[in-house]
Each structure stands twice: as C-alpha cells, then as structure tokens.
User: What shape does this take?
Amino acid sequence: MKDQFETKIKSVVEEFSYDYDPQAWEALSKKLPQANSGFSWLGKIAVVGILSIGLLSIWYNFSRENKHSNHTTQVAKNKTQSSDKTKPSSAQEAPKSTTPTQPNSNQNISTIAPNNAANQGWTQITQEVVADPGWHLAPIALRQQHNSMPIVSESFNDDGGQMPQVQEHLLPLDLPGQQAQRATPTPCKGPKIVLDADAINYEDGTPRIRINAESSVTEISWSANGTLLNKKSRSVDLLAFQGQTYTITAQAQLDGCSSTEKIKITANEDYNLLAVNAFNPQSRDERNATFMPYALTIRDVRFELIVIDPDNGGIVFRTKDAQNAWDGTDQRNGQMVPAQKAYIWKVVLQDALPSEKTTYSGTIVRI
Assistant: This one.
C-alpha cells in the first residue's frame, strides 16, 4: 500500500510542468548582460609573441648547425684533395665508403684527421661514419704514429666562424725505451794521458821546463798560463820567466771522445839573466874576475849593458858585446872602482822572447 502511494506521488511530480511562454523568455534574455566570446585582444597579442619567439629560435639554431656543417665539410674536402695529390698509385687509395649516398651539402663530421695514406710513417685506418641515409659522408683515413702526433690549429673564415685545420707539424714523443736511454746516457771515455815535467834548465840561457806526455794518441793540444815553445805531439817547453805556479793542460781526442790532463809547476824565483851580485878582479878564475850576466854570453840576443854609480848617477861602464865584460874599471877616469861598494847594472834587450820583459836590472859589488 505504501509503495503504491509513493509511486503515484513520484509520477505526479515528474509529469508536472509550467506553461512555457517563448515571448516572455525572449524579453527576459534581452535584459541579461551579454558574455564575451573568444580571446581578448591582449591574449591574442601574447599568443602571437610566443609563437614568433619560438619560430625565431628554431630558425637561428638551424642556421648555426647548417653553417658549422658546411665549414666542416669544406675542411674534409680540402684534406681529401691534398691526399689525392700525394698518393703514388691507385693501389694505395683508401677504401670507398659503403654509406648510402645522396647529394647534400649539410654534412656533420665529428672527427677530422689528416688523410694521407701515402705517408710511410703512419698506419692507415679506415673508419666508416654511420649517419642518416639521407647524408653522404665519406670515410676518413686516420693516421697514427708511435713517436709523433699532428698539431690541430684553428683559423677563421670570411664569416667569422672557426674552421679547424690539421697541420703537418709533428712533435717528437719519447718511447719508454728512449726515455730510459736519455736518462742514462753512455759515458764518453777519452784517451788516457800521463804528464810529467823535467827540472828547470838554462841550456840556452832561458828558464825552460820540458813537459812530456804519454798517451795512445799522437795528437795532443797544449795550453798554459805562460809561454809555450817547441810544441810537439808528445812534449812542449815552458818559459818560466816569473817566480810563480804554472798550470799546463794537455787535451786529446779518440773516437769523438776527449780527455784532459793538467800538471802544475812552480818556479821559485824570477829570471834575471843569471847575473851574479859580486865579483873579484883579483880572482884567478876568469868567470869571477869580471862581471857579465851569464845568460847574455850564451843567448843570441842584442842588448846593451850599463853600470851606474849610485852616488851621482854617472855611467861607470857601457857595452853591447857579451865578450867585453866589466873588470871593475871606471871608464870615466880609468881607475879601479872602490871595493865593497854596490853599483847598479841595467840591461836593455832588443830581441826579447814572447812574454819576456825587455829591461833587467840588479846590483853588483866589487870584492
């Protein structure tokens, strides 16, 4: 019973409706505010601006990629032409690419290396570039060498873009064995030299010291801080005019290796023409009865000897002949000079030896 009542009420409510007057609804619609349709003019401008910026960005990126690809392709083409000129025969040409070909100037090559398969110092490696079937990429021949490497530099084209270029300059690279060899070079051993010196002698009236060398080589170079005479392959003479230490150096070479040996010699006193400082006119030995520097009697040299009185500076004796020695007579008065009085003697040489002084002097006393 309850269910029938509810069903009846529900059907009455669902079927109930008011009468519809179209003219009244049309009059009411005209009084309502009209809604805006579509985008406003500000929204349209914003949409146009966003689309314009996106299109410009896409065009700019595409232009840069296209320019870079053209530059890289031109470099690869130039290196390929240079390689073709240096190939000795067609048998040494690099293998052709098996990549599908299609004319396209926009090529993108990721690695650029010298393509010179004819170079004997490099090992040729052919590499095929995997790319889009619409591209035409030629294989690139890489060169490798154990002890050298190419230098890649950059240059600028007319458009201001950088274009890498491979130069043929090679830098030496040390292998492990070469580094060890440079770190421990083989020592160069020259010939052995043994030096010895004789005692000083005055055989020709000059102070000479003979230096001798023993070595397996025949040619020896000599040098010293004094005068060297009679240089020979195994000996040399040193003139020791001054009382000092002399250093004589001998140098020899054998198979590109040189060796040096030195010897030091000391002269105790200065050379003074081997002159004595006293004489006795009454001596029975003629060598002691007159005065003449002994070196002048055995040396072949022009000279002048004078004896001076220290009291008044007068010349007591003068000669240019080594055989005309002074016997103590004063040439000014013809009398014998007083005994135990020191007189000054002076010798001027006209033919002095190299590094020898030209004037010698000393004192002489008559006993």
Confidence is low (pLDDT under 50) at residues 86-156, 166-171. The radius of gyration is 58 Å.
